[in-house]
Amino acid sequence: MRFIISGGGTGGHIFPAIAIANALRQKQPNAEFLFVGAEGKIEMEKVPQAGYPIKGLWISGFHRQLTVRNLMFPFKLIHSMWKARRIVKKFKPDAVIGTGGYASGPTLRMASGIPTVLQEQNNYAGVTNKLLANKADKVCVAYDNMDSYFPKDKIVVTGNPVRQDIIDLAGKRKQGIQHYGLDSNKKTILIIGGSLGARTLNDSLRDAESLLKEQYELQVLWQCGKIYIDEFKTCGTANLPHVKIMKFIDKMDLAYAAADLIISRAGAISISELCLVGKPVILVPSPNVAEDHQTKNAHALTEKEAALVVKDQNAKETLIQTAITTLDDQTLSHKLAENIKQMAKPQAANHIADVILKLVKSKKG
Predict the structure, then answer these.
(1) Would you kindly state where each structural domain of the chain is located, as residue ranges?
(2) Nearest to 34 by CA among 57, 76, 58, 5
(3) Residue 210 pLDDT level (bands cut at 50, 70, 90)
(4) Would you give the DSSP letter of residue 62?
(5) Which of 58, 57, 60, 49 has its CA nearest to residue 18?
(6) How would CATH label the architecture of 165-341?
(7) For residue 359, with 0-12 CB atoms within 10 Å meaning exposed, 13-18 middle and 19 or more buried, which class applies?
């Protein structure tokens, strides 16, 4: 079998795409894959690292503000449609899978007559997937009640594919504590703002120096982000003996295993990972994303009492105190952990792969 997988622009689009490819490869070891991404974006680096070939399209998003870059958009789109058509025609895929992002639009548009599957990570559907939904055969989603965005008869609730090493953290706590040089007798707050970091989370920690000074029974593992590390590594909080600041966390599974409570943004893939981790979580949705979709992602958890939410504008004043209070409240911590576990879908990638393979076989008759 031959598969084209298209998506990217952010890790939230490309990491699910790679996970789907891995699941398909396990089920079809002789299958051939070709990724299609956007030139200059993260997928052009991450896909080859994962062992798959990729071709790039000259495509980017349309900016909502009036900008000179928008004048190039029609030319980029036409060029990308033409190139995507050549790629599809030459590769002759049995199915085309789109995970959202700029490049998946032209690629799936040019896959006319070929079985197509969309994968939507968020609780609020992305623009590209909404535009493609009517022509897709199936739409794999992570949340219930997505029929306001997609045709109901095409929707399959699968969950979001996540990294394999996060699926089973049992027995990794001791290893995580040792790897990050933490104290096994203290409770650990893990703060993650993505690989680039999150300004609000970093500011909240910096401003909580006096509060954390007195919390000797706690320790903090702080992923600051590579663009912020020079600014924050010299602040008072970063120099407290029970605070460990890092620009990037290399072993995410060990960090999760070491944590007793996790503070995070509310990206779709982060939430899917946190459901599998099964620890108390405080989400701080980013306000700087399209259609405020992180708030909608977070709402899917809070309505089931599976996480707490602190608004971005309130984080500096309340975030760290909320974390401390939550850890002190064993009843609340236990309830949050148990409820978020119920939302985990560890077999998401396999489920999506099964949907794709079933579709291909049905089309072939």
Answers:
(1) 2-160+346-364, 165-341
(2) 5
(3) very high
(4) P
(5) 49
(6) 3-Layer(aba) Sandwich (3.40)
(7) middle
